[in-house]
């Protein structure tokens, strides 16, 4: 009997060890989320953060915000601006500092809305990638808000005009130099003929850039647009020409499944992507996080155990809550190791129209 139990215990230990080794490296290392961490602003919807540690030793967050008197969706499409907040520690709380990229006039490609920021740095230059859009109509006010919805003229033009752009600065506090044209435009008869959005850059050691982005295409009737697809573009340097690689997307409804909000980072083992599994086709959970990896940033393989997170969050006040929304994952890497993961989140039962509060939260990693 003694030998039998020894073998049983050994078998259990082997199975437990194998299970631990097979676990997703993000999901297995999620710690409790600080209830007072992250970033929020009274009277604003806050969304989608990107964080970098500055030369001043301070953590600088760039996030989207728009007034709460507008509906969350599609208010961002016509009134989002990118703001800058800081904290002495990565968990926060982050304090608002300034508007990094705001409205600058309908005549600019990004004149009405700036959204989905991603901050990187290369040789002393801070590079802020984002989505911009515009529309030619009057401003939306509290007097005409009843006319504003996803099918309104403002949103039809605002969605159609979404493009990927870039701004640069020598300081995380700005001022930011904006471009008169997007860096990634649409192209006819492609999976991104309708719009480009949600940029996720990674600058290699030689200065070249890999840029993942979201695209949608026109449908045959010329009116409706397609589901989301994720493509990849490259550039010889951050201020060089960006060219889309291949004519087929990396992810789409037909290839692997529809995903959104990809984020890239690198370490000694290669390149890594975390993203939201839009329909749950890959991870088995709608809106859960997935992981993929690549050796070159162009060709991607889904991880063997792809589920990186779920909407259920353990908070450091002892509560466990399934968030209404959990999107825009961003992984902070310090000294070659992922240390924190940030999310845009919303309260409520789920659905953009059912929440009363949004903020950017952070989960430390072991």
Descriptive notes:
The structure is a single chain. It is built from three helices and 21 strands. It is mainly β and 366 residues long. The chain has a four-stranded antiparallel β-sheet with strand order 1-2-3-4. A four-stranded antiparallel β-sheet has the order 5-6-7-8. The radius of gyration is 21 Å and the shape is globular.
Quantity of strands, as a count: 21
Instruction: Sum up the overall morphology in one term.
Output: globular
Largest sheet: 4 strands, antiparallel
Which structural class matches the secondary elements?
mainly beta
**Main sheet strand line-up:** 1-2-3-4
**What is the helix content?**
10-25%
Give the DSSP E fraction (strand runs of 2 or more residues). Answer: 35-45%
Q: How would you spell out the order of helices and strands?
A: HEEHEEEEHEEEEEEEEEEEEEEE
- Poorly predicted ranges (pLDDT <50, ≥5 residues)? 4-21
Mean pLDDT: 93
**First-to-last CA distance:** 39 Å
Radius of gyration (Å): 21 Å
